[in-house]
Automatic annotation (TrEMBL), chain A:
Pfam families: Glyco_transf_43 (PF03360). It is an enzyme of class 2 (transferase). GO terms for biological process: cell wall organization; glucuronoxylan biosynthetic process; plant-type secondary cell wall biogenesis. Involved in the synthesis of glucuronoxylan hemicellulose in secondary cell walls. This is Glycosyltransferases. GO terms for cellular component: Golgi membrane. The chain crosses the membrane at residues 34-54. It is a single-pass type II membrane protein. Keywords: Cell wall biogenesis/degradation, Glycoprotein, Glycosyltransferase, Golgi apparatus, Membrane, Signal-anchor, Transferase, Transmembrane, Transmembrane helix. SUPFAM superfamilies: Nucleotide-diphospho-sugar transferases.
From TrEMBL, chain B:
This is Exostosin GT47 domain-containing protein. One of its GO terms (cellular component) is Golgi membrane. Coiled coil: none annotated. InterPro entries: Exostosin, Exostosin_GT47. It comes from the Eukaryota. Keywords: Glycoprotein, Glycosyltransferase, Golgi apparatus, Membrane, Signal, Signal-anchor, Transferase, Transmembrane, Transmembrane helix. It comes from Arabidopsis arenosa.
Length: 503, 417
């Protein structure tokens, strides 16, 4: 079908109509044949030269004007203005040039409306998408997908109960908005239980209200400590509080733990619908600190280390169920913390890798009926939640079970990584405007100590306007050159609260 | 004798039924609809017992040696001729007794002379065909008995038995004069075209079944692409200005819809081509240099509704498969309004088309699996041949009557091969 230039030379195509007299018609006598051939050759060369000068197929244009039939159509807005856009019937041309053409050629065009030859490229006057049609198409896509869901998808879907421990800090809005968007995309019913350390604040309340989901905002009085160790302990306490809420309200669905800095894939929510009582999924662990320079350095260091030491078995950064060949749960994969021994972050804003616990809560999902006081068919291998003693040390959801081997591995037995664990926090002394809204707008511009952009462009000549009298006695800092560190450090840190715009 | 043959046939049917359980399973749980074309509900007919085919034993220079010289012929889209022979040699419809045969098959591989790029050159094919026919005419009496009217040939090239890749030249040559009375099994089909003889059987081009099955994705993956197409819009090597290739239809698709978010069209060769087709609702199947293309087969296998942009095309097994109900036909002149046409199709019609496409017998009929399975393209060809039986009385010539002109055609074709 696709013809290469190899056996279809350009010359062949161009001289298509000219060669037919010599090849097909052998009845013309010899001398006349050579005269006609010479004449066509000269004409052909002339047309070639003219086409070379003009830049389009002059010969076709000539024949069009000489032998045009009534079936020519000119199309509006031709995209290629150099191309003589016309509908040619090559057989009429062929017939004029080649009086001895086969009768079959005429037969092809007699009753068929399809003709061979050069056709125009039809372009409509406004070749751009029509919004009404785009919407109709999306309606069709939705209908098709709905049909697919009813045929192949879940017959009955359970509600998703998301449990998120959080507290107010610089990156809270960043992380929590990610969770908001993930939960908004979930195609099932969602109840979101947000437990906040330091009491339920408006800040958090505003973020979760934007989701439009049914939320239960619980506050606990303790403030979040500033070491990772203590933080995870408090988070466990907060999650258990949320589970108590599930038990009291008798919420019916599947409980999953959506830590606010984790990333969830939509397949995760589809997969957990398959859980019967207690399931576990594989969690990808991103144990880097998030500091770009640190990461680059550690990458280089790591490469050096790899070259020096032979083969450290590469640790898969995945925490999740381990199965044998018959897809039965035999244990758990744990994140290998040995490479980070002694180098991990202790305080929340340490510039070092943050390590996960042995088994993160986010990798487990449970049927909410396990937590109820009275539920039919509740399996015996589950401890009664009401009588759980927290002081005994609950470090992972497995403490809720008497028999951990009854856990169901999900995501094709842990082979699919459905969510990603990450802990990134800003510096402890970082400040941020409440609600991340700067109102009224700031009046002072200060160049930051470190910018990701190597060359800060010079200030535009409207600098004079910046020097107009200000309402308060704040000094005006000229920032015409790249980081004027002397100027800035003398004024104090760039992180001062108040009306300073950070660039 | 008769009873035992009926018992044998009954047992054979049972065996084929049992083997169909392990057959090429493509549609798993989607509800489907029965397909019945203009010839009735014939897709699942079993040709065994309805006809007998005699396969000529040609010297291997016509088939095996050609294949040995270039084994790429087994994988390209013209491989149907090779697999047809292999299927017939071991099929129950084959008979070794030519006296009782209804149809005669001539296994000659005319589309196996490949360029280094893999494209078949048709320049020697007429001579090869002619030489094969001369051979069978001189060694067996069956050709002269009917002048080939009960013989069939597989000619899967671009324009069938016109043996040329360029349409004008193909039209100029016409069908090989010696094949005037034979039945042609070809991929090319266009109404009122010289190269489509009346009574020809149109088959789909060969597409490798294993390759397609290995790219299946879970059926619950939602179809999120509205229109999908991958291929050339302008054939810059052979038609730099555009307007010749595909009669300007592909170029029109590009110019009108290149910035339309609903149309996922490009000239790239992605590795996820088959997977993407399974995520699309409509797949464009425009004409190229010839009106047919393997895209139709791929679209049917992957459940994507084919949008056929080729005026007057005759689709494979047109009497057995109601293509109007399954695909969407768009005239070449309506290509600029393709988005309006496609979005104005009611969703119920689209769902019905998808149900028809999900019918396993539909998918099976488009394939040439090895070994052959019931309902596949081989069987549809035999069904088509069986529907043409019994031969009319006029097929058999009176002694001494000659209808074919053995010296017709271009002089170059008369040279021996």
């Amino acid at each position: 079908m696709k013809l290469s230039a190899l056996h279809q030379s350009y010359l062949n195509r161009r001289s298509n109509s000219f060669r037919s007299p010599t090849s097909l018609d052998s009845s013309v006598d010899g001398s006349g044949k050579s005269l006609i051939a010479v004449f066509w050759l000269i004409l052909h060369c002339l047309c070639c030269l003219i086409s070379l000068v003009l830049g389009f197929r002059f010969s076709r244009l000539v024949f069009f004007f000489l032998f045009s039939t009534s079936s020519t159509n000119l199309y509006s807005a031709p995209f290629r203005p150099d191309l003589p856009v016309k509908h040619l019937d090559v057989h009429t041309i062929g017939r004029n040039l080649d009086p001895g053409a086969n009768g079959t050629v005429a037969m092809a065009t007699k009753s068929s409306r399809v003709v061979v030859g050069r056709h125009g490229i039809r372009i409509r006057p406004w070749p751009h998408p029509n919004p009404v049609e785009v919407m109709k198409a999306h309606g069709i896509i939705e209908r098709v997908q709905k049909e697919q869901k009813t045929i192949f998808g879940m017959k009955s879907s359970k509600m998703v109960i998301a449990v998120t421990p959080t507290y107010v800090r610089t990156f809270q809005a960043l992380h929590l908005t990610g969770v908001v968007h993930s939960l908004m995309l979930v195609p099932y019913d969602v109840v979101w239980i947000v437990v906040e350390a330091g009491g339920a604040t408006n800040e958090t309340g505003l973020i979760i209200a934007k989701s439009g989901l049914r939320t239960i905002h619980v506050g606990i009085d303790q403030r979040m400590p500033n070491t990772w160790e203590d933080r995870s302990k408090l988070e466990v306490f907060m999650r258990l509080q949320a589970l108590r809420v599930v038990r009291e309200e008798k919420l019916d669905g599947i409980v999953m733990f959506a830590d606010d800095s984790n990333m969830h894939s939509m397949e995760f929510f589809d997969e957990i619908q398959n859980v019967k009582w207690f399931g576990t999924v594989s969690v990808g662990i991103l144990a880097h600190s998030g500091n770009a320079e640190e990461m680059v350095m550690s990458m280089d260091k790591r490469k050096e280390m790899e070259k020096e030491e032979e083969e450290e078995s590469s640790s898969l950064p995945v925490q999740g169920p381990a199965c044998n060949s018959t897809d039965q749960l035999i244990g758990w994969h744990i994140f290998n913390t040995l490479p980070y021994a002694g180098k991990s972050a202790v305080y929340i804003d340490d510039v070092a890798a943050v390590l996960p616990q042995k088994l993160e809560w986010s990798g487990f999902v449970l049927n909410s009926r396990l937590l109820w006081e009275e539920a039919e068919n509740k399996p015996e291998w589950v401890k009664d939640f009401g009588s759980l003693n927290e002081n005994e040390g609950v470090d992972s959801p497995l403490s809720l079970l008497k028999d951990p081997s009854m856990v169901e591995p999900l995501g094709s037995c842990g082979r699919q990584v459905l969510l990603w664990w990450l802990r990134v926090e800003a510096r402890a002394d970082s400040k941020f405007p409440p609600g991340w809204i700067i109102d009224p707008p700031l009046e002072i511009t200060v160049a930051a100590k470190r910018t990701p952009w190597p060359d800060v462009p010079p200030e535009p000549p409207t600098k004079k306007k910046d020097q107009m009298p200000l309402s308060q006695g704040n000094t005006v800092v000229k920032s015409s050159s790249p980081p004027d560190t002397a100027n800035i450090t003398s004024n104090g840190e760039e992180n001062k609260t108040g009306k300073i715009r950070l660039r | 004798m008769k009873l035992s043959s009926w018992v044998l046939i009954f047992l054979l049917c049972n065996l084929t039924f049992l083997s169909s359980i392990s057959a090429f399973r493509l549609s798993r749980s989607q509800p489907t609809e029965r397909i019945s074309g203009s010839a009735g509900d014939v897709l699942e007919d079993n040709p065994v017992g309805r006809l007998k085919v005699f396969v000529y034993e040609l010297p291997s220079k016509y088939n095996k040696k050609i294949l040995q010289k270039d084994p790429r012929c087994l994988n390209h889209m013209f491989a149907a001729e090779i697999y047809m022979q292999r299927f017939l040699l071991s099929s129950p419809v084959r008979t070794l007794n030519p006296e009782e045969a209804d149809w005669f098959y001539v296994p000659v591989y005319t589309t196996c002379d490949l360029t280094p790029n893999g494209l078949p050159l048709p320049f020697k094919s007429p001579r090869m065909m002619r030489s094969a026919i001369q051979l069978i005419a001189s060694n067996w009496p069956y050709w002269n008995r009917t002048e080939g009217a009960d013989h069939f040939f597989v000619v899967p090239h671009d324009f069938g038995a016109c043996f040329h890749y360029q349409e004008e030249k193909a039209i100029g040559r016409g069908i090989l004069p010696l094949l005037q009375r034979a039945t042609l099994v070809q991929t090319f089909g266009q109404r009122n075209h010289v190269c489509l003889k009346e009574g020809s059987i149109t088959v789909p081009p060969y597409a490798p079944p294993q390759k397609m099955q290995s790219h299946l994705i879970p059926e619950k993956t939602p179809r999120s692409i509205f229109v999908y197409f991958r291929g050339l819009f302008y054939d810059v090597g052979n038609d730099p200005e555009g307007g010749y290739y595909a009669r300007g239809a592909r170029a029109a698709v590009w110019e009108n819809f290149k910035d339309n978010p609903l149309f996922d069209i490009s000239t790239e060769h992605p590795t996820t081509y088959y997977e993407d087709m399974q995520r699309a609702i409509f797949c464009l199947c425009p004409l190229g240099w010839a009106p047919w293309s393997p895209r139709l087969v791929e679209a049917v296998i992957f459940g994507c509704i084919p949008v056929i942009i080729a005026d007057d095309i005759v689709l494979p097994f047109a009497d057995a498969i109601p293509w109007e109900d399954i695909g969407v036909f768009v005239d070449e002149k309506d290509v600029p309004y393709l988005d309006t046409i496609l979005t104005s199709i009611p969703p119920e019609v689209i769902l019905r088309k998808q149900r028809l496409l999900a019918n396993p017998s539909m998918k099976q009929a488009m394939l040439f699996p090895q070994p052959a399975q019931p309902g596949d393209a081989f069987h549809q060809v035999l069904n088509g041949l069986a529907r043409k039986l019994p031969h009319e009385r006029s097929v058999y010539l009176r002694p001494g009557e000659k209808l074919l002109n053995w010296t017709a055609g271009p002089v170059a074709d008369l040279k021996p091969w």
